[in-house]
Amino acid sequence: MKERADQYFGSMVFGYEKMKEYLSKDTYRQLKETIRVGKELNLDIANQVAHAMKEWALSEGATHYCHWFQPMTSITAEKHESFLVPSSEGAALMEFSGKELIKGEPDASSFPSGGLRATFEARGYTAWDPSSYAFIKENTLCIPTAFCSYSGEVLDKKTPLLRSMEVISREAIRILKLFGRSDVKRVVTTVGPEQEYFLVDKDLYLQRKDLIHTGRTLVGARPPKGQELEDHYFGNLKSRVSAFMQELDEELWKLGIFAKTEHNEVAPSQHELAPVFTTSNLAVDQNQLTMEIMKKIANKHGLVCLLHEKPFAGVNGSGKHNNWSISTDTGLNLLEPGDNPKDNAQFLLFLVAVIAAVDEYQDLLRVSVASAGNDHRLGANEAPPAIVSMFLGEELTEILDSLVDGTDYPNKERSSMLLGVNLLPPFPRDTTDRNRTSPFAFTGNKFEFRMLGSSFSVSGPNFVLNTIIAEQLSRFANQLEQAKDFASELSALVKETYSKHRRIVFNGNNYAPEWIDEAKRRGLLNLVSTPEALPTFIHAKNIALFEKFGVLSSSEMHSRYEIVLENYCKTLNIEALTLVDMMRKQVLPALSAFSGALARSFLDKKAAVSSLSLSYEAGLIAELSNLADGLDKEVALLEQQLLEARMVEDISSESYFYHDTVLAQMAQVRSLCDTAELLTDQQYWPIPTYESLLYSV
Ligand code: ADP
Ligand code: MG
Predict the structure, then answer these.
(1) pLDDT (tens digit, 9 = 90+) per residue, 284-302?
(2) Gap from CA of 452 to ligand 2 centroid (Å)
(3) How far is the centre of ligand 1, averaged over its atoms, from the C-alpha of 439 (Å)?
């Protein structure tokens, strides 16, 4: 019989339970304190923790350990070391010291650094993040670590996130003090990322170079049946898929990841996994692990898990919904409307801090979700759009509007409850009806940032969110700490902030074409592509922000800017090369073979019965030959452009060249190829079709 899930949940994680079991009382207490307040760990404690971790890992059959880190690629990295060392008598010992736990030295030269290492040393080091749990994966004890260059430049995705969490905690505590909550010692941000993905049959996948090399289909005519019937959503899980999901859940549970709901998405073969939320840094680690394990488990079931944002044209893409909130170590969710005026005033202050942050730093939020893959969703004919706006729901918007405009809040009964700090009447939570089109929606006691791509690390969007909100809280605190009359200053601050930033609130349909014009009138940004969005990252105001809080330095920001744009260009380059290869080696030869067969059959028939018209064969031969000639020409042009791209000197111009020229030409090639596919005998078509990919599992 199978073990109960609650019994093996977290069994592969060195969490509080294991710590308690394997550490002395005193060491456990000190480690816990280190984790709680983010203190530094001394070597003596580290040695004891390392020993305990090793004993636990060995008892679970582990043979190796690794520093697990998150470089500026989209995946995690690890360098395995064996626990084994020879003893002086030549026998084997299993060792793991505090030093090895705290610090590692992977060769940093093969990870992207965006020019940072041109000026600095090639070496880098990894440092243990005690606030994230160590875990065992494939017989290896994995220690979550931050990754820096030797001179201290941040080269990873964990460090800025941890820093941003410190910063927002500090600023939020200042605000809470003013509300008399001096008991709060720490404020944490929480994240629950909902992960979308596709599953396709592995045998078919292996026949498509585009899926193998780029993660998406570069060609493929639309199947007769797409997602128009919407019959996939919450439909029954097919047995192969449910076997996959079951095993996935089990593996995630062992790693202490609360995988909660799994269901089909709108598109055929598309699914979603939602975990229970946790602190931001754990959520980031766990989401990285989730993506990795999804791919591995899929493979075991003869499936491939596609995490690309747009694997199929004409079918919904995949995103990641970043549910975000902020709460205290005393258990208070700061985005939860209170049930008395004072709590509501506090809620409103945090709410307008988020509103102001999102409005003022639309560009940073947009940049945090920019990539070649996600460009196919944002700003393309898909949701959410590239314009950042917020949904608050009707009732909350009305309350804020009436505050600013001095009008009566429409609900008289509740208005009569305006008391004390004179701000917000209690209101029921469930009035925040769902607006599925908003990129940034208030959903009762949290915000849901929906622009993330499915393959993203959620670190970037979250360190941006934390920092931009910390900035508003810091300004508020500066002002309120000086206030003579706290209540009236608070009231004025909420009104002033909302009135300055209310343009970012949009409760309507974000997919409607009218919204684009309306957003323009409101002065909102519409950065439709990665080349357009990225340069805003290094605008002076944004550099000033990150430097002010010590989250990223100016040189670290420039390096990140370069890494992302370089990655964009490389991605499109690989896509274009793959497309050329598929056309030259597969599609053009197939068209030639099929039209050749038609021609032979035409001649045979003509020879047999000379009076036949044979317009089907004749017409198709002509059409296919014309298409092949056209395709050949367009492919040659694309090849030419790829040579030109190499000549472009600066990275921004290069990214525009790829976007405006190469990507447009790829669409040209695709259109001819897809037309040809529809005319070609399926026995001659060399790559699995959309129909087979989307309906095979
Ligand atoms: P849906 O958006 O699909 O309707 P829910 O609203 O139930 O689903 O929750 C979506 C996600 O939001 C889940 O991953 C959940 O854990 C997460 N979530 C709930 N509360 C919070 C919170 N306070 N902070 C961060 N994430 C949260
Ligand atoms: Mg959601």
Answers:
(1) 999 999 999 999 999 999 9
(2) 12
(3) 15
